[in-house]
Design a protein that fits this description.
The strands form 2 sheets. Strands 3-2-1-4-5-6-11-9-10 form a 9-stranded mixed beta sheet, sandwiched between helices. 56% of the residues are buried. Helix 1 links the parallel strand 1 and strand 2. The protein starts with a strand and ends with a helix. Helix 1 runs parallel beside helix 12, helix 4 crosses helix 5 and helix 5 packs across helix 8. The chain contains 13 helices and 11 strands. It has a single domain, classed as Alpha-Beta Complex (Inosine-uridine Nucleoside N-ribohydrolase, Chain A), CATH 3.90.245. With 342 residues, the chain is an alpha/beta fold. It is globular. Bound molecules: beta-D-ribofuranose and calcium ion. The site of calcium ion has 8 residues, from helix 1.
């Protein structure tokens, strides 16, 4: 049974990643830790708690960690993910409380308690994980594996012309994390899902239509001709929440000239973490620029060993968007169907 420790900055695509993992009967979500990124860390925690309740899954620990990056001021992106990070979705305030444990304690204590069992999945800035590595440098060997959504390699950035958001928010944390993995055995190296493959996971209205049908709630119609901000009429609360969240993300991409599509970066990383969608990888030595004003947050991959340093990452080099969406829709659809609502 895959056991997953998540660190997230929920976030519309983080939300789909979480709901997807909750929809997999064979997956245990051990705990969810929250990093500031798309929105502040406290709001991230509220979003995660509300999503757990929406999915009928109280009792999974949600812990807050770093509220600011290691060395630079926090930047959030409400214009991308909505005022609360969930697009147009407004979820009821959660009844469950945030954990009294700090996110860093969660990572260190859980990994030590279950050596070789937990797969880490990080879909936000790497601040919490970098702090956990400072506390427990043996973390890479204590974890079964690690999957990171972050970076862009020989590919246009989405935050600066060369930098991806998660790395850009805390480049110093990302640099520390990649440095910590140098020289480790190949099966321990982080699987890195970066923009050149996650931007292929392009959600379109068709996918929401199919999600509504898979949930037994009828086709969910989110269409480019509808007014911005129109709310879902679905009787299924999970379909309605995801639809309202994703509509905001579709509009954001359209405003940025990318068409009425939404890149579901983190949902791909979740499917990859539980090995339910195919992907190919390439070994590389990765480093992160932290100094140059022009290039700060840029991830660089040495695929040819030109630096003479051992690899520290397995970068996803190929994926199958159609397969990934089939997996997301059928699994999340079945969960939504089970939760009821027409
Ligand atoms: C990443 O940035 C965030 O806005 C998304 O949630 C994703 O994790 C993509 O660059
Ligand atoms: Ca994210």
């Amino acid at each position: 049974m895959p056991s997953i420790l998540m660190d997230v900055d929920t976030g519309i695509d983080d939300a789909l990643a979480l709901v997807y993992l909750l929809s997999r009967p064979e997956v245990q979500v051990r705990a969810i830790t929250c990093t500031a990124g798309n929105v502040g860390a406290r709001q991230v925690a509220l979003n995660n708690l509300a999503l757990l309740e929406l999915c009928g899954r109280q009792g999974i620990e949600v812990a807050i960690g770093a509220e600011v990056p290691l060395e630079i001021p926090l930047v959030t992106t409400e214009e991308t993910h909505g005022p609360q990070g969930m697009g147009y979705a407004e979820l009821p305030p959660p009844a469950q409380q945030v954990s009294p444990r700090h996110a860093v304690d969660v990572w260190v204590e859980e990994a030590r308690a279950r050596p070789g069992e937990l797969t880490g999945l990080i879909t936000g800035p790497l601040t919490n994980f970098a702090l956990a590595l400072r506390r427990e440098p043996g973390l890479p060997r204590l974890l079964k594996g690690l999957v990171i959504m972050g970076g862009s390699f020989n590919y246009q950035g989405n935050t600066t012309p060369t930098a991806e958001w998660n790395v850009s928010v805390d480049p110093h944390a990302a640099k520390e994390v990649f440095a910590a993995y140098r020289g480790l055995p190949e099966d321990k190296l982080p699987l890195v899902c970066a923009l050149e493959t996650t931007e292929r996971i392009e959600l379109r209205p068709e996918h929401l239509r199919r999600l509504g049908e898979a949930a037994g709630a009828g086709p969910e119609l989110v269409l480019p001709g509808q007014p911005d901000g129109q709310l879902s009429a679905s009787g299924n609360p999970l379909v309605a929440a995801l639809s309202d969240a994703v509509r905001f993300y579709l509009e954001f991409h359209r405003h940025h000239g990318q068409g009425y599509v939404a890149h579901m970066h983190d949902a791909f990383a979740a499917c990859a973490a539980v090995e339910r969608t195919p992907f190919a990888t390439r070994l590389a030595t990765v480093d992160v620029e932290t100094d140059s004003p022009l290039l700060v947050g840029t991830t660089v991959a040495d695929f040819r060993g030109l630096w003479g340093l051992p690899p520290n990452a397995r970068i996803v080099s190929g994926n199958d968007p159609g397969h990934c969406f089939d997996e997301l829709i059928s699994s999340v659809g079945a969960l939504a169907r089970g939760l009821g609502g027409q």
